[in-house]
Design goal:
The protein is elongated and about 90 Å long. It folds into 3 domains: about 10-180, no CATH class; about 195-240 and about 260-495 and about 535-565, Nucleotidyltransferase, domain 5 (2-Layer Sandwich); about 495-515 and about 520-535. The N and C termini lie far apart (about 70 Å). Mean pLDDT is about 80; it is low at about 1-15 and about 515-579. The protein has helices spanning about 15-25, 35-50, 50-70, 80-90, 95-100, 105-130, 135-145, 155-165, 165-180, 195-215, 275, 295-305, 320-340, 355-365, 380, 385-405, 415-430, 435-440, 450-460, 470-475, 480-490, 500-515, 525-535, 565-575; strands at about 10, 30, 75, 220-230, 265-270, 280-285, 310, 345-350, 370, 550. It has a 7-stranded mixed sheet with strand order 9-8-4-5-6-7-10, sandwiched between helices. The protein has 24 helices and 10 strands. By secondary structure, the chain is of the alpha/beta class. α2 (about 35-50) packs across α6, α12 (about 295-305) runs parallel beside α17 and α20 (about 470-475) crosses α21 (about 480-490).
Length: about 575
């Protein structure tokens, strides 16, 4: 039974005993009935619009209004009941006068409700497509709909009120939202998905990640890496804090205005292996001119955090396909250096840059398996969004306060802020293991320590390893089916023979057997094969020209030096050899 989600209804054909039993079960002692005047108004409305759905909707609203005043059980009104009312009041003078008199008050009340019904359907259609409808647009649509009905005095008065009185418009908008089940909200509303879609997408993703870890890896152990971007320049000092009451006057000295950093993105990464996490690259992308090297002081401030916090200068502050190709090559080489013989599984969200053909081709060339988190589910399945970024930004604000206290001033210079951010990134993302967090979000394929929200989403879903179909991939990533088919061929292509795993393992074993500081021979052939398969870094045709940081960026600068433009050209020339 339903009365707009609140009123309890009982079938009209139910007996008295059944009604009493239902009321006792609900703890209600009141029976909600429409008055005779309301039944007549429903009959007039049906004769005017000849639409049972509008009339039944109006009846439900009347029942809901009565239910709000005092809870009770409402009668379920059906088209059969409407037919009985029409037969009962067919010759009623009030009904006949209302049908004939277009300027009557009852007729005007009905026209107002019908106009609201049309506007409510229009708003529901727009919100179903993911749009937020401004209140002013709703008021204008309602006022325009009133021009199509007979201009009774009540209709003319309503139009004049909406046209000249802003407070009346706000009151009407609030009543409209309350009557028709709308709410004043923000842009976060379109990102919500229903529980069925959430469960379905989570099941597809979990079967996909298990397929990659158990079947596609062909028995090789895997290291799962999750990467996501966030802005650093928007992390500012805390807005609220403690201060003396005497300073909260108009004569108090205002806090100095801090200089805003240029747009800076952070490509943060977490891994399922604690040893890999300690060397996993954390990349900063400050906005800067691509044809000019940064100042020496800025390079020193960025490089003070040391490896593996890297700064890629000369970018626009955004992650591009060229940056993704460079990042994939760097992550693959870093993981294989620490864990020879392992496969790299890179988990990304469905940002368009991550889904680009260049990114997919770069991952296939490096033998890196890509798995994409379903659209609108990063809050559940992405460790960086569920845990890491909140910790990082809280630590950045605390470090900002402590730096100001230590330096004895109320604001930091851009160079001081850059250095503070680098030290905080090292402390949170490099020196702290996040393997447990990766496991709790289900990225390792083990639900033993999964979060309760994830277990609830997977309830009733098949969990055996299985790659997604093209239709499932289209649903997960919200891309056309043709694009999903093309991506599926790239993502599920047979992996290359892991020759580099054996070569890297042989070179690592030879280095381990050689005594420290001795001239013991090393298997140069294995080392050369490893360098050939895992080159320094891919060329970046449109990448930034000036790179800086602890790793140098575009070259194999393990000594921590910063590349100038000439050094960058030399590094690209060295990396120009085929894979």
């Amino acid at each position: 039974m339903a009365a707009a989600g609140a009123a309890r209804s009982v079938d009209a054909a139910a007996g008295v005993d059944a009604v009493i039993e239902a009321m006792d079960a609900l703890g209600l002692r009141r029976f909600i009935e429409l008055t005779e005047a309301e039944e007549k108004q429903a009959v007039v409305m049906r004769r005017l619009c000849n639409n049972d759905s509008i009339v039944l909707r109006w009846v439900r609203h009347q029942q809901l209004t009565k239910f709000r005043w005092r809870a009770g059980v409402a009668r379920l009104i059906t088209p059969v009941v409407l037919d009985n009312w029409c037969a009962r009041y067919a010759a009623d003078p009030l009904v006949l006068d209302a049908v004939r008199d277009a300027g009557g008050d009852l007729r005007a009340t009905i026209h107002l409700y019908m106009a609201e019904s049309v506007v409510a359907d229009w708003v529901a259609n727009l919100t179903g497509r993911g749009l937020l409808v401004p209140s002013c647009s709703i008021v204008r649509a309602f006022a325009n709909s009133l021009t199509a009905v007979p201009q009774a005095p009540a209709i003319t008065a309503m139009r004049g009120t909406l046209a000249n009185r802003g407070r009346a418009c706000r009151r009407w908008s609030a009543r409209f939202r309350d009557t028709w089940g709308f709410a004043w909200s923000t842009a976060a509303l379109p990102h919500r998905i229903d529980d069925v879609t959430l469960s379905r997408r989570t099941g597809i993703f979990f079967r996909w990640i298990r397929h990659v870890l158990e079947e596609r890896s062909a028995g090789h152990p895997c290291v799962v890496v999750n990467m996501d971007e966030t802005f650093l320049h928007s992390v500012k000092s805390a807005k609220l804090g403690v201060r003396r009451r005497s300073d909260m006057t108009g004569d108090a000295v205002p806090a100095p205005r801090e200089r805003v950093l240029p747009r800076t993105s952070l490509m943060a990464s977490v891994a399922s292996d604690a040893d890999v996490q300690a060397v996993l690259p954390q990349v900063r992308l400050p906005r800067g001119p691509p044809d000019r090297a940064p100042s020496r002081r800025l390079v020193q401030a960025h490089g003070a955090s040391g490896q593996p916090v890297i700064t890629l200068h000369g970018s626009g502050g955004w992650v591009t396909s060229s940056v993704m190709k460079w990042y994939i090559a760097l992550v693959a080489r870093t993981v294989l250096r620490v864990r020879p013989g392992h496969r790299v599984v890179l988990v990304l969200d469905c940002c368009p840059v991550h889904l680009s053909r260049e990114t997919l081709q770069a991952a296939a060339a490096r033998n890196v398996d890509l798995v994409f988190i379903p659209a609108r589910l990063t809050w559940l399945l992405q460790p960086l969004d569920t845990h890491v970024f909140a910790v990082l930004k809280r630590a950045l604000r605390q470090a900002d306060f402590e730096a100001k206290v230590d330096l004895g001033k109320a604001s930091l210079t851009p160079l001081e802020r850059v250095q503070m951010q680098g030290e905080t990134i090292r402390r949170v993302l490099v020196e702290r293991p996040w393997a447990t967090t990766v496991q709790r979000t289900g990225l390792t394929g083990d639900l033993g320590a999964a979060r309760p929200a994830l277990l609830q989403a997977l309830a009733g879903q098949r969990l055996e390893p299985q790659p997604p179909t093209a239709a499932e991939l289209s649903d997960l990533l919200q891309v056309p089916i043709a694009r999903a088919t093309e991506m599926r061929r790239s993502l599920l292509c047979p992996p290359r023979v892991p020759v580099m795993h054996a070569a890297a393992a042989a070179a690592a074993a030879a280095r381990a057997r050689a005594p420290s500081g001795s001239d013991a021979p090393v298997d140069e052939a294995a080392a050369e094969r490893s360098r050939a398969v895992v080159p320094r870094l891919a060329r970046l045709p449109s990448a930034p020209r000036a790179l800086g940081g602890s790793l140098g960026g575009a070259a194999d600068a393990d000594d921590g030096r910063v590349l100038t433009r000439s050094a960058t050209r030399e590094a690209r020339a060295r990396a120009a050899s085929p894979l």
